[in-house]
Please model this.
Amino acid sequence: MGHPSSLSPTPKNTHSISAGKQRHHWVERFLDGWAVYRKNTIGRIGMALLGIFALMALASFVPQMVDPMYHPMTGVDPEISHSTGPSMRHWLGTDFIGRDIFSQLLAGARIAFMVGISSALISILFGTTIGMVAGYAGKGTDIWVIVLMIALFRWPGVARVIRSQTLSLKHRPFIEAARVAGASHGRIIFRHILPNVMPLALLYMTFRVTSAIIIEAALAFLGFGDPGSVSWGMMLQWVWKTGHMFQAPYWLLPPGICISLITMAFYMAGRAMDDVLDPRLRKEEIKP
Amino acid sequence: MALRRFVLRRLVEIAVIFFVIMTVLFILFRLAPGDPVSRMVDPSMTPEDARLLMESMGLDQPLWTQYIYYLKNVVTGNMGVSFHYGEPVIGILMDRLPNTILLFTTSIILSALLGVFLGKIAAWRRGERIDTLMTIGALFCHTLFLPWLALIMIWFFGYRVGWFPITGMISPEVWIHPDAGFMAKALDVLYHMVLPLMTLVLIHFGSYLLVMRSSMLDTLKDDYIITARAKGLDEKTIRDHHAAPNAALPVVTSVGLSLAFSINGGALTETVFTWPGIGRELVFSVSHSDYPLAQAAFLLIAIVVLVANLVVDVLYAYLDPRIRY
Model:
């Protein structure tokens, strides 16, 4: 039991049919899913964009090794004390105190991935657990769990979806079979229901990543960001607060384009994943 | 009267949720850096005066007594005095609320109309070039980062071509002019609204377009569309009078919810365009540690979101007679 990486919406108990080669089952499922995903142009574009951003995030460690003046936060070009346009020395120009915009952009990619993925993981973890328990426990605890969900943080959306999915799973024969066989509630939730809601949780994760990145950028833009790190939102705030948006398009454009593109990339990957998870979406056959 | 029972049940839920939000806010603001005592007490005060002041504010009481006072004050609408403005926060927020409502209601209705109109066409001509173009365009606009788009707008329309004002909501010289009539003032506000409005519509219409498109595709599969076609109605009537009204239902939901969230989602737009609304006040109060103002703003947003959810649910029952509670 338990194929967390499997990307199939069908109940996992059916795998007992192929019990002989159980170990490779999820690998096959994954490859099947990947084959569907690869056919999707939007998904391919999204994946390619994400790859570029991942490379940027990795490359962000390079500039400050070349020369300390390329450090995104503390490095200042000793010869420049104001914002300058792109040059060989600074590919995208410098900001108002002579820091390199290109290395800031790279550092921003690292922050975006970090914020996006970690906060999405946390909210998915909370949302999935709470949603499953709420859906499984049924009536009595419902309203209180919902109250908690709405009152706190950002995982409520996930929890609601997972809860409704769990509600429908709860009455499937394989759950009842497990109960008859004497499985405890915890075992049913985590060994039988979890593998089945996992694909949905993964899909929601891509959307959470997007919103986490946007929220971080928005907070940084408004001045509530972490002052010790450079993110794209922070870069935009510097452009805006120092009034450079009128004379420094080379500084204004890159961070905004990056935020928009990474959002779009995750969104596209999510849409393509939706295709993999829900076979009904693959062909829309209607005649207007 | 299933609907009445539904509304009553939801009202009880709203009350419970609101109570939880109030409590969470109370705890959060007690955890926030810079305790209220050091903010209120002037260093030049004698210790005796400081003690009296604290007693009069109830700050010498244990935390749970403060909590009871706080609940009582929220219920009676006494939200305290802003540190920065020195005025009751309720007055400040009520002063800003109409500005926010004006900007966001207009923008959301405009973008919903645009989204429904374009989404209808995209779904109708599904698979054709115009559909692909619209879907990609909508997706693109939807993923633009709002403050960035706002800055670009300001840079282009406010600076390069210089057509529209870039800050504020009114030009004082128009308003203090002795024979400025209502029309002149309204036009002035409209003139200032163009840029924020354009930004918001560009960002928001995309999601409405996508929702409308997919809902319309679903609707077109329904039996009554086949019936309409069998009756020999012309295509335009089927599209506009049979399919579109039913397909627009999900858009109504998301309009309702975005109206609710625009009260706070406006923080970015209002800050960039210095539009004097709730969102800008929220950002200002948080960054200047104006706790009473921030607390009241958060509670106001919570109420609006909760009530709007209920209104959307009820509205849904009216718009779609198939839905019963």
